[in-house]
Design goal:
This protein is an all-alpha fold. It has a domain at 35-83. The chain contains two helices and no strands.
């Protein structure tokens, strides 16, 4: 086994600097927030499309498109609402 000057095992992967690591984690966090918002918006659009399509085809209030579309759209709206703050504390808290 190869040893470093301190006597520990040598690392096969070079260490990143603190600034590079922070930059990488910031980019990952931004990508996560963006993808969360995009998927939530997609849920809203899909739910609304289901409701509109069901109504256009003459479906009643208990049709599958209504029963599944409304909760799907509401879940998307709730996810967008929860993702709006980006983890920052609110002023009223």
């Amino acid at each position: 086994m190869v040893r470093t000057q301190r006597g520990g095992p040598a690392s096969a992967v070079p260490r990143r600097g603190a600034e590079e690591t922070a930059s990488y984690h910031g980019a990952v966090a931004r990508a996560y927030r963006l993808s969360t918002r995009a998927l939530a918006a997609l849920l809203v659009l899909l739910g609304l499309a289901m409701v509109v399509s069901t109504i256009a085809r003459g479906g009643g209030p208990l049709s599958l498109g209504i029963v599944l579309g409304i909760p799907l759209a509401l879940l998307g709206v709730a996810r967008l609402y929860l993702a709006r703050a980006d983890g920052a504390p609110r002023a009223d808290a």
